[in-house]
Amino acid sequence: MSDDELRHREAMWVRNGALQIRGYAEAFPDADDAERQRVRMAVLYAWMRDRCPVAVQFVANYVATAATALGMAGVAATGGAVAALFAAHTGTPGGAPWWLFPAATWAAVCLGSLFVVRDDVRQVVAVFRRLGTRGALRRLTQPQIAYWYVPATLCVTAVVAAAASWLTLVTALAAPTGQQMITAAAGLFGATLGLQAARWVGGVERLLHRRLRRAGRPHPLDAVLVELMAATSACSRGRARW
To answer: What DSSP designation does 221 have?
Structure first.
């Protein structure tokens, strides 16, 4: 997104948060207008202090994506090495090369990750269609990382997945049957790992958000106040049905 789009999203997020807090305050039937306004403003200030700006969220997502890719690469390499050790002890003559099993694991990781982020792929394609060829090239050649990080990550993942999958299939078909089964097991492990990519990224993002919010924050109970108001509102709205 451009800087204007980033500011627009930030403004819309603040507006939606304020409207949600106003809806929470309207659920207090025993408070008058002045009391509801004081509570609403106090919780709104707490929410503003506790939130992470959109720009910080994007940076945290970039860092979390890179950390997840490195972590999955290490786990995939370890799993492929274990599979290669199993294949080496089968004693089958003319066996497959050792790099087949890490390649199969990494291909499955990339394919699983692309399946998880298929909605993001659709959004990127829709943005490129809206911008056109010139607009897309103009945006991708800008020095700002926000313009090219996501499409570049998806493109690299797709290219690596295609190359590793083709190499795995061609090599595995010439391997003995026992080693083909080990290759399939390595691929299943990689697919399971890749399907958890969104959870890995989300976990790293939550850790980064917690560190960023904690730095220099004078009110550590802001999030508690916001959630307490939401819970109170839910109880007030639902008590007639209890």
So the answer is: T
pLDDT along the chain (242 residues), means of 10: 75 88 82 85 86 79 89 88 79 69 90 89 86 81 78 89 89 81 88 89 84 64 88 83 74
Position 166 scores a pLDDT of 92
Alpha-carbon distance 151 to 17, whole Å?
29
Render the burial of 75-91: b for 16+ CB within 10 Å, e for the rest.
Answer: bbeebbebbbebbeeee
**CA-CA distances (angstroms) from residue 90 to 15, 20, 139, 182, 205?**
63, 62, 53, 10, 42
Q: Are 43 and 225 in contact (CB under 8 A)?
A: yes
As a dihedral over the C-alpha atoms of residue 127, residue 133, residue 135, residue 141, rounded to 10 degrees, the angle is: 100
CA distance 230 to 235: 9
Cα separation of the two ends of the chain: 46
- The Cα-based distances of 22 to 33, 39, 120, 224 in angstroms read 12, 10, 32, 17
At residue 174, the pLDDT reads 80
CB 160 within 8 A of CB 106: yes
